[in-house]
Amino acid sequence: MKGIALMSAMSARLVGAVLLSAAIVAVSARATEAHPHILIDARTEIVFDAAGQVTAVTNIWNFDDAFSAFAIQGYDKNGDGVLTRQELQPLAEINLQSLADYNYFTRMIVDGKSVPFGLPNAYYDVFKDERLTLHFTLPLAAPLDVHGKTFQVDVYDPAYFAAITFANDHPVRLLGDGAGCESIVHRPEPLDPATAGRLSVIPASQRTLPPDLFAITNKLVNAARVMCK
Questions:
Q1: CA separation for the pair 129, 121 (Å, rounded)
Q2: Which among 73, 96, 174, 222 could disulfide-bond with 166, CB atoms 3.0 to 4.6 Å apart, if both were Cys?
Q3: Interior CA angle at 160 toward 13 and 91, to 5°?
């Protein structure tokens, strides 16, 4: 079965390291008992060049403490109790490989069409205050002229294996020469108790949701709507 990573070729430790894997085991009691299985506070940076064109989208994802504690196991190579970016870089590489089949849970839409991304770069993990944070940049395949246009960047997992929610503080930033552009942030509404109850009995090994549930989770979109003059 295809998940965020193919499980058959991975050791138990690697399974624990792969973000959003379809068979993550025993992250915590919460994670094994309920869908979603991973909670993410997200921030998104939209990068403009000197000509005011969009060139990249950077994601900064802060994972819940239970998943963070599980994912970092085995990466403190020198045993000093401090996880450096260098020690965590193999984990970051696994993170990005795992997310590739799912378009990194990120899409950019302009004029009703999805804008293609190139391969991710500038990716790394940081472990601080008991939380793992993944940083990665998705360059656009070509710079996009957005003068006089409105576009949208969506960040979410349609199957709700991971509950991604824009952070409360500074969820979206426009970097570079984005003069004349402003953003509006949309967060998904909380699930109703009945839907949350149905999701709670779906195990981590089941990545695909029943169609009626998927129709609901597919709308749990964090959106940055950007309007440019």
A1: 25
A2: 222
A3: 30
Give the count of beta carbons closer than 10 Å to the beta carbon of residue 159.
Answer: 20
The structure's pTM equals 0.84
Distance CA 35, CA 197 (A): 9
Chain segment 90-110, per-residue pLDDT in tens? 999 999 999 998 999 999 999
Residues β-bridged to residue 57 = 46, 138
DSSP 102-152: GGGGEEEEETTEEPPB---EEEEEEEETTEEEEEEEEEEEEEEE-TT-EEE
- Tell how strand 222-228 and strand 181-186 pair up: antiparallel
- The string of DSSP letters for 45-109 reads EEEE-TTSEEEEEEEEEEE-HHHHHHHTTT--TT-SS---HHHHHHHHHHHHHHHGGGGGGEEEE
DSSP state of 180: T
Residue 76 near residue 82, CB atoms below 8 Å: yes
CB of 27 closer than 8 Å to CB of 37: yes
- Rounded to 5°, the CA angle 181-185-190 comes to 170
Please state, in angstroms and rounded to a whole number, the distance separating the CA atoms of residues 57 and 147: 17
The whole-angstrom separation of Cα 214 and Cα 198 is: 12
